[in-house]
Amino acid sequence: MDKIAHFVQKSDCNATTVAIFGAIGVAVVAFKALSFLKVLVDVFLRSGINVKKYGAGNGGWAVITGATDGIGKEFAFQLASKKLNIVLVSRTESKLKAIAQELEQTYSVETKHFVMDFTKASEENYQALQQFLNPIEVTMLVNNVGTNHEIPTPFEQETDKVIKDIVEVNINAAMKMTKIVVPQMITRKSGLIINLGSFAGLVPTPYLSVYSGSKAFLSSWSQAIGAELAPKGIHVQNVNTFFVVSAMSKIRRASLLIPLPKPYVRSVLNQLGISGGASTPNTSTPYFSHAIANWAIDNLFSRAFWVNHNYKIQVDIRKRALNKREREAAAAAKSQ
């Protein structure tokens, strides 16, 4: 009888253990299902902060860096269409003048432009830009300018110039531009700072280590200053971006995961203040397919899995890029 009682007791204990772990499993699955449902609600149903809060139609100015191509240019046009005056900051004056003229004629807004090559910008250049911006009411800053490795490259083989340019453009420019405009935003207790982030900052990307590190910095820094500035009425949003058709991405054809700049920027502006697929503070992944990918990275498999996944992708891209260089060199030699 004692053996039977012990067996029954042990069976009950095992059943209880199975039930507890089963309940935990159900709870985990339910939590992940709810978090995925929230992503879908965010990207398809919710509306973000209206840019009218940041001076649209009321004399406010948006400063956009890297404003003559791709995402930056699209920000300029879409914000102008919402009646924000525009300051274009980029390195090619002819492009700046052409875009400024088109914005004024199309949307009847005011524009200004400032020539700045962020890879070579000195303290004097930044001081001149500050003096240029002081007289106007800057209500929004889009830290869009960025640069990347030419091809995936092991860190020890990367040139000092590429490393320096990435740090200067992706990190220092964002900090210095923000430092310039934040004081007047604090005075008015209102402002919006959009930082163009990257999935390379979400998951470390081998062979793009400096670029990946710069975007990881931007993510962490945005969260930190976002917490500092929120009580002062300033919203900071790091936009977590997967690939977009652009000169920097070297992608020319749109797909489900790779939008053109126009729908991508529209998603950013329509969902200001909404996290979308992002799970970190002061961060948004607004474009629907990027949001789902962001959720998958945060919720499926380990971080080591995703780093290794990035490693394999970049090894393949590097191999194809080197093969292309060899073919071009051979063709050039043959033509001589």
Describe what this molecule looks like in 3D:
- This protein is α/β, with parallel strands linked by helices and 336 residues long.
- It has one domain (47-301): 3-Layer(aba) Sandwich (Rossmann fold), CATH 3.40.50.
- The chain contains ten helices and seven strands.
- A seven-stranded parallel beta sheet has the order 3-2-1-4-5-6-7, with helices on both faces.
- Helix 2 (70-81) packs across helix 8 and helix 4 runs parallel beside helix 5 (160-188).
- The longest helix is centred in the N-terminal third of the chain and has 43 residues, at 2-44.
- The protein is globular, with a radius of gyration of 24 Å.
- The protein starts with a helix and ends with a helix.
- The model has no long low-confidence stretch (mean pLDDT 93).
What is the CATH-assigned architecture?
Answer: 3-Layer(aba) Sandwich
Q: How many distinct domains?
A: 1
Mean residue pLDDT: 93
CATH topology: Rossmann fold
Query: What is the overall shape?
Result: globular
User: What is the rounded distance between the termini?
Assistant: 98 Å
Report the CATH superfamily.
NAD(P)-binding Rossmann-like Domain
Provide a compact summary of the structure.
InterPro entries: 3_ketoreductase_fungal (IPR027533), NAD(P)-bd_dom_sf (IPR036291), Sc_DH/Rdtase_CS (IPR020904), SDR_fam (IPR002347). This protein has 336 residues and is an alpha/beta fold.
